[in-house]
């Protein structure tokens, strides 16, 4: 499957700035990732469902009090705060977006876990940390910005201690998109600065090539699928409030694209737990 090359860190950062400036983060309830619903919890709000996905990821890192966790692509810091407060762990978050790092740092000052939270501007492919310094790491919708994820996965393997875990939550393709569907995928990649959406097996292959032992790889696409409709609705609401007609049209188009992609039967979502050998 041919997809674009690595999305430059600056371009990814700029894209998140645009969505933040449009109020997308607030409209999505504070998180910048999908939510998780089941038949029993279908009435959850978007913020409750996105927090639930954070909880699923955090639980799989097997946190113990006093552990040091790395949050890769920490967004606005909301997931890191939630994990630090719930599990009595230290969390260092990294991001290529300076605006989000600053926002996360400000948010952390109001947290009861403020002394256990740290946010830095850094690229996952070149981490400024010593070998084995983290008990575990999590990456929620981050690695999809890299066409070749192996260098990043190797760096994470280096900084997580032996026996430590890496938990990934990310888009996946159940089958490669072909024919008319290819245009939909290319639009999704372009608008959201996504370099690669891997198949489930490609996720496994990349992790194993970087030295990780895959413990769990589950497609939870049906449980996160409502997120796309919720997000599209929020984006459309924002587009009607923007004074710039061109910006409003772009945001509305991005909403349509997201909703169409999210409804595609071959669009899945991988929840992965790996262990450093």
TrEMBL record:
GO terms for biological process: methylation. One of its GO terms (molecular function) is S-adenosylmethionine-dependent methyltransferase activity. Residues 70-168 form the Methyltransferase type domain. It holds the Pfam family Methyltransf_11. Keywords: Methyltransferase, Transferase. It comes from the Bacteria. CDD domains: AdoMet_MTases. InterPro entries: Erg6_SMT_methyltransf, Methyltransf_11, SAM-dependent_MTases_sf. Signal peptide: none annotated. This is Methyltransferase domain-containing protein. It comes from Streptomyces tardus.
